[in-house]
Amino acid sequence: MVVAKDIVKALEWEVAKAEELFKTARHEVMRKVIANYVETAKSVLCEEPGYENQFGYVDTAHINGFECRDDVLEAMDVLAEAAKDPKKTPKELNALYSDLYSKGMRLMAAAKNAKWVNTQSATRLNKLFGRFAGIGNVIEGLSRIIGSMYGNDKFFTGAEAMAVFQGKLSVSSVVEARARGLQDSDVDPANEDANIVSKNLLGSGAVGTVYELTRSDGKHVVFKGETESRTGLSALSAGSAKSYGTGQMAVNLNFASKKAAVALGMGGLIVDYSAGSHNGVFGFYMEKAKGVTPGLLRREEPSTSSETGLSVIDIRRLPVNEQLKILADLKRELNRLHWLDLLTGQTDRHWDNYFVHIDVKTHKVTVKGIDNDACYSQYRTGATRFSFDKNRAELFKAKLLNVANKIDSGHANDEYAHLLADPGITADENGGLTIDASKVRNKAVIYALKGVTGAKTLAVPDKIDSETYNALMELKAGPKRDAYLDSIRPRLSQDSYNAAVSRLDDVIAHAEKLKDEGRIVQGNGWQHVRETPLQTGKVTVQKRNGQNKQIGGDIASVVNELTCPSYFARDKLSKIFA
């Protein structure tokens, strides 16, 4: 009995020690998370000091905006420092947060009162004040992180605690996952630094640094740090201003995209994802997709390997019937990817954002989308419909005015009014706008819409295969629809979720329209499909006086790509089979 009591006391001591360890670890990780967040916020809300001094503020509202910005940064530092002190009470933190919040609201008001400057040299000034207007997201994000750190007493599950003790899982990964509302299954211990045996830099640029990592189990994964996965304010809220809603991060958006692919029965169209930390930076891991991007696929170089798949030269050496089969399968898979992107509201599916692999032995065609975090925007409420609030509407109008200047600089305001009256644009009583790309008559509006959304395509597919159609119909009502919506709901803000539901119904309606028009491709019918070609050359713009004007250059190339209904045609993959 005495021995038993001693064992119990020893166990109780070990538990108490473990709890203290977790508390200390959580506090240390919290310090780092908050410090990183505040530093990122500063980089978003500030330009280089020398450059800011050269802005040449055009009115007192701009001067007031910078003063309010400085007040916000100071209050953010004070709150962050206080949050690091375990002796601070929730009441004290709430008082500091209230001060930060009120200063943030003043900054938002100052940003909205500042006038947009319609000169090329003021582009950075306008963008900076646009970020000021989204300061609410930044402040709410900081509040969520601090609240999560202090408010959740059970940060670790039993399995996670054991994994931490065994060195298989870092405390940082667990805590940062909790701060973002990620689910337990989202973090894969196999990706922890202790299990990484080699590292290769894949690229570094405007979207951050991407690494290929080799795990001890031999699997290759690609890592992108979340704070680097998007730029500007996006690094804090997974989208400019409120485009992706509050509480969301790039990691969650990638997971949501995978859920959509699974809902369509086409999970293989999106790479697998998991979350975790690498060298202290939290982010997401994705499987290293086999194959090459379309641009590399078009290169006429013999580069056959099991990883890259068949090259152009290899394909052209095959019998004609095999070439036709590959051609048909490639069209079908790209069409499916386009439908998936409609479902998620993906805006960044360019020709370097998916891989094509054609198996050396079987000639099976596999298409996999990567970097799937530019999606589930609250502003994309339909397959081709964008609903902008007042702030986003003003940004669109500024883009539209720039286009009007290119059409007729001498009568830009008149041309602007003509463009704004396009039947594809609808205004609401709150100053917002709804733009439906499918109803736009004047192609110049499409160019302006691209400037606001960053979309790489604004067209819908003009055909659908029978399997994709049937999968969409199962999402119209019933258990599969419920399962899909339940799988993305925890990962999205309420506004983004509402937009996702609206977009789902709109995509289903478009599929039904194609069925009525006899545009469902059955079975092997893709061998007989002729893709709608990519338009080239100048585009026609109708002026206010009814006359047409031919416009080339960047406007023409962008509009032609945005309005092409086929990824296959847009990305010029027909050249492979020439």
Q: Mean pLDDT score, rounded?
A: 84
Which percent range fits the helix content? 40-55%
Work out the radius of gyration. 26 Å
Approximate strand percentage: 5-15%
Category by helix and strand content: alpha+beta
Number of separate strands:
14
- Uncertain runs: 228-247
Number of helices: 22
Distance between the termini: 86 Å
Biggest beta sheet summary:
5 strands, antiparallel
The coarse overall form would be globular
- Spatial strand order of the main sheet: 1-2-3-5-4
Brief rundown of the structure:
With 578 residues, this protein is of the alpha+beta class.
Explain what the structure shows.
The protein has 578 residues and is of the alpha+beta class. Helix content is 51%, strand content 12%. Strands 1-2-3-5-4 form a five-stranded antiparallel beta sheet. A three-stranded antiparallel beta sheet has the order 8-10-9. Strand 13 and strand 14 (548-551) form a beta hairpin. The longest helix has 44 residues, at 2-45. The protein is globular and about 75 Å long.
Any chance you could write out the topology, listing elements then pairs?
Elements: H1 2-45, H2 49-52, H3 60-84, H4 90-113, H5 123-133, H6 135-151, H7 158-165, H8 171-179, E1 196-205, E2 208-215, E3 220-225, H9 226-229, H10 234-237, H11 250-263, E4 273-278, E5 281-287, H12 294-297, H13 312-316, H14 320-344, E6 354-358, E7 365-369, E8 385-388, H15 390-407, H16 412-420, E9 425-427, E10 433-436, H17 443-453, E11 464-465, H18 466-474, H19 479-488, H20 494-516, E12 520-521, E13 539-542, E14 548-551, H21 553-562, H22 567-570
Parallel strand pairs: 11-12
Antiparallel strand pairs: 1-2, 2-3, 3-5, 4-5, 6-7, 8-10, 9-10, 13-14
Helix pairs in contact: 1-3, 1-6, 1-8, 3-4, 4-5, 4-6, 11-19, 14-20, 15-16, 15-17, 17-21
